Amino acid sequence: MTSDTHGFAEETAAFSPVALLSGDTSFVGEKIAISPWVMVTQADIDLFGQATKDPDPMHDDPEWAQQNSPFGGTIAYGFQTLSLLSHLNHLALPWPDTVAYGLNYGLQRVRFLHPVIAGASIRTHIYLNGFCRENDGRCRFETSDIVEIKGVEKPALIADRIGYLVMAQS
Predict the structure, then answer these.
(1) Contact at 8 Å (CB) between 143 and 15?
(2) 20 to 30 A from 92, CA-CA: which of 36, 43, 150, 165?
(3) Is residue 103 classed as helix, strand or coil in its secondary structure?
């Protein structure tokens, strides 16, 4: 396994969604995907603040944040970074046509470890912690996401997630 300059492993298991859905659980315990980098812009931060009705100069006032913030500028909302997991996971794990849709079931644990400065790029490293087919045909999965910030040693967040894949009708 190789790693980049900040200790995040760049390689993943030779993950196959089709094999997993067919019952091959050998990927459990492995890193199964890394998303592409996604930039978090000030415009993204502003829109998130407006949508959540949470005005805060640490996030939405670059001049104030440059003068008063310990981070030297505005930062993304922690929950904004968390909410980007859906997008990052979709980019990293395109599911086969046999999957109709996925459902978020919840989070076991979330830790916000480092702020994401406006203009920074992030990506997620996805580890498969568990997978099983339920009696109703849905597939339950458990993952850990570690969100990396480009050029920063400490991750932005770590989240343990649970979700379901609902299979398409044949």
Answers:
(1) no
(2) 43
(3) strand
Range of the domain at 159: 17-40+83-167
Listed range (51-55, 76-80, 94-98, 156-160) with the worst mean pLDDT: 94-98
Radius of gyration of the chain (CA): 18
- Bridge partners, residue 57, by sequence: none
pTM of the model: 0.89
Cβ atoms 40, 33 nearer than 8 A: no
Inter-residue contact 110 to 155 (CB < 8 Å): no
3-state helix, strand, coil in the chain (%, to 5): 25, 35, 40
Residue 46 and residue 60 in contact, taking contact as beta carbons nearer than 8 Å: yes
Amino acid identity at 75: I
